[in-house]
Structure formats: C-alpha cells, structure tokens
Amino acid sequence: MSGIIENVYIVGAGGAGQVFADLFLSLGIAPSGFFDDNPELKGKAFLNIPVIGTVTDAKKIEGQFLLGIGNNKARKKVFEFLGFGDDRYLSPVNRLSYIGQGGSIGIGSVVLGGVVISTQVKIGKFVILSIGSMVSHHCELEDFSFMGPNAALGGNVKVGEGAFISIGATIIPGIKIGKWSVIGAGSVIIKDVPDYATVVGNPGKTIKIKGD
Q1: Helices H, strands E: what count in the chain?
Q2: For 9-67, what is each residue's pLDDT tens digit?
Q3: 22-52 in b/e burial notation, b at 16+ Cβ within 10 A?
Q4: C-alpha closest to that of 109 among 95, 127, 121
Q5: Does residue 1 register a pLDDT over 90?
Q6: Model pLDDT for residues 158-175, shown as the tens digit of each residue
Q7: Which residues on neighbouring strands pair with residue 159, listed in sequence order?
Q8: Does the pTM of the predicted model rise above 0.85?
Q9: Domain boundaries along the sequence of the chain
Q10: Close Cβ partners of 87 (under 8 Å, ≥ 6 residues apart)
Q11: Where do runs of H (alpha helix) occur along the chain?
Q12: Which residues contact 176 (CB under 8 A, 6 or more apart)?
C-alpha cells in the first residue's frame, strides 16, 4: 500500500476514523475525505482531511474505503448499508507491526502500530487490532471483531464474530470467545466464553448474557 492510491475515503470521522486517517498518512496516503452522519461534524476537518458528506453520500462516490467505526455492530450495519463489493475496501497495516507467515487478513481489517501477529493466524473481514495487541499462533478472529490496546491472545484462541476484547485483556491458549461477546478491560479469560456474554475480572466471570 503506497501513496499512488487515490480516492480513498473513511466512513466515520470520530475517534476510530481519525486514528485510521493517521495510519493512512503514515503510509503516505492522503485520504480525500470523511463521511459521517453526525451533523456537528459537517464542514470540519481532522488532520487536514475534510468531512465531505453523510454515509448515504458515500454510496455515490467512486473510490476505495475504510470503515472508521470502532463499535462492532455499527461497523457491520454500515457495511451492509453501503453494499460495496470487497474490491472497494482497503486493509491498511502499520509498518511498526509484525505479521507472521502462513496467515491471512480479510478485507477492511486494520492493523495498528505495535501489533504482533504470530504464524498461521486467520483474521476475518473488518477486524480491528488496536495498538500493541498480540495474537499468538493459529488463532482465528472472525469478522467484525475487535482487540483493544495491549490485549493478548494465547495460541489457538478462536474469537467469534463481533466479539469485543477490551484494553489489556488476556486470553489463555485454546479458549473460544463467543460471538458478540464483550471481554472487560484487564480481564483474564481461562475458560470458554458464551455467545453474547459480558465477562469481567481475573479470572473472568460472566456478569450477563444478552440475546442478539
């Protein structure tokens, strides 16, 4: 990925969108604009990149996109609303990260600085790996999942669709994290987590399970 890429846009101009804009700039790519539905952001610019329209306006634009939305459910909802094909999305990787051999990273996923991804890791579509997160060997992260700063996965961990692993959480090897679950900040997970569960503490305890 280099500066020869043109007509790059970010959907979402909040915190995540601005972090992703900074990532693009570090790669020598200057995004052409943000799209965001927040009327208070209309006409503003962040990192000299203007907010040029709403999410609906983005559907009318030719170019390549990144979903700058930290909320996993909202990110999936916007992806479904836009209806773009895979070829319309970029998957930027910070140069200060490490990615081992034999794995894969799906379209629309983002790897920020200081991330370490070991060998034979499978990362799905529209996954966010935040600063300093660590993924050990043979892990699988399904679509729309999220790893917070300094979160860590041991080997052979399976992370379900839309799961949110908060800052500093640690998952021991071989654990399965259920889809759309939430792992609290600093939690230590030593047993499988059900779908839609919220788990906190050391060791992690389920405090609630919420349906889809």
Answers
A1: 3, 23
A2: 999 999 999 999 999 999 999 999 999 999 999 899 999 999 999 999 999 999 999 99
A3: bbbeebebebbbbbbeeeebeeeebeebbbb
A4: 127
A5: no
A6: 999 999 999 999 999 999
A7: 141, 177
A8: yes
A9: 8-88, 98-200
A10: none
A11: 15-26, 55-58, 72-82
A12: 157, 158, 160, 192, 193
The amino acid occupying position 21 is: A
Take residue 116 and report the two structure tokens written for it. 């370490």
**Which of 122, 116, 127 shows the shortest CA–CA distance to 102?**
122
Query: How far is 5 from 83, CA to CA, in rounded Å?
Result: 22
pLDDT tens figures, 93-148? 999 999 999 999 999 999 999 999 999 999 999 999 999 999 999 999 999 999 99
CATH superfamily of 98-200: Hexapeptide repeat proteins (2.160.10.10)
State how far the Cα of 185 lies from the Cα of 201, in Å rounded to an integer.
8
Domain 8-88 coded CATH 3.40.50.2300: no
Judge if 8-88 and 98-200 fold alike in CATH terms.
no
